[in-house]
Amino acid sequence: MPDAREIAGYFLLTAIQVAVIALILRPMESLWPVEHWQDRRSTVIDRSYTLIKVFGVLPLFTYAVLAPLGNLLGGGSDDPAGIVSVQGLVPWLGQHSVLLFLVYYAIQDFTYYVIHRLQHAIPWWWALHSLHHSQRQVSCWTNDRDHYLDDLLEALIVAGVAVVIGVSPVEYALIVLSGELLQNLSHANVRLRFGPLLDKFVVDPRYHRLHHMRVDPGRPTLHACNYALVFPLWDIVFGTALYGEAVRPTGVGDPMVDADNRHGIIGQQLYALKRFRASFFSRAGWRPGDVAFNTNYEPVSVRDFDLHALEESQVPLVADAHGLKSTERHNGAGS
Ligand SMILES: [Zn+2]
Ligand SMILES: [Zn+2]
Fold it and tell me: Separation of 133 CA from ligand 1 center, angstroms?
């Protein structure tokens, strides 16, 4: 059970994270924006996602799920003994704590990369992860805009790997917090590049913004890029890195997913869950590949869609009668 000092420490770290976003990243977005927006109305919901997650969901989840999981697998102390302990496999690393930490970091980041590839490749997982991508105003708050079931799956896998390889709770907290901060930066609407050398080692805002590009009907596979969260190395090794491309509009081409923008957090969670349910219990939901969703929330391979028509059926962010009609027209034809 965490003591009062640990809880206070957690909230201090959380307060630092929110302060960095609000006092550094947010002003940077005003000074050097990549995209010029008339207003920031769509970013407000992402800010709520961030505040709910860091002050509510994460502490609850850590206490209720991660701590028991760690204890169950023999972790939960600062003297870790993983099932496939990295220290056990390479004892030499035990004497080089910085290097050992980097190895842990790389393994955790690679786990995130694999998860992220699957979130895009498997339709039932995309049904959830698409909520993160439906945002058209990607900003410093967007990192935590996720479906809670998606968060749960991801955290269980990543924490499971951490426990198995012997990452201590303190190291785990460091890895997660620094990763979160970097991702707050990489989502920021800021004209910032780390440069042609450093951007091959660490993900920068330009790199992750390309991952959020709306599908280009003329180059329909271009958006399948830049999945890495911290180290672009994984994209480079597996051929999914994209550099040197001009900034593009963000969001999704699928009107059923884009419709997330008309809802509040509860509505977004429910509609993504509908997509998930219709996908998880159908064969098409398990067949890897890009999909869009029909009006019954079922996944349909994008090969069956005219991507140009899909692009044209984008509706205004604020629902109106005309917009709703054009979405229904498209989905009626596509399903
Ligand atoms: Zn993604
Ligand atoms: Zn993102």
Answer: 7
* CA 332 – CA 323 distance, rounded (Å): 14
Apex 106 CA angle, 180 and 200, nearest 5: 80
Summarised one tens digit per residue, pLDDT across range 214-233 is: 988 888 889 999 999 999 99
pLDDT value at residue 325:
36
> Residue 230's closest CA among 202, 188, 195?
202
Distance 322 CA to ligand 2 centre (A): 30
**83 Cα: distance to centroid of ligand 2 (angstroms):** 32
- Dihedral angle of Cα 177, 182, 187, 191, to the nearest 10 degrees: 150
> What separation in Å is there between the alpha carbon of 289 and the centre of ligand 2?
19
- By the 8 A CB rule, do 296 and 206 touch? no
Q: Which residue has the tokens 């927006």?
A: 37
Residue 277 CA to ligand 1 center (angstroms) comes to: 20
Q: How far apart are CA 208 and CA 223, in angstroms?
A: 11
Angle at 257 between CA 248 and CA 188, to 5 degrees: 40
| CA 80 – ligand 2 centroid, Å | 31
Express each pLDDT in 105-123 by its tens digit: 999 999 999 999 999 999 9
The letter for the amino acid at 313 is S
Q: For residue 116, which ligand has an atom nearest its CA?
A: 1
**Residue 4, token pair as written in the block:** 């009062």
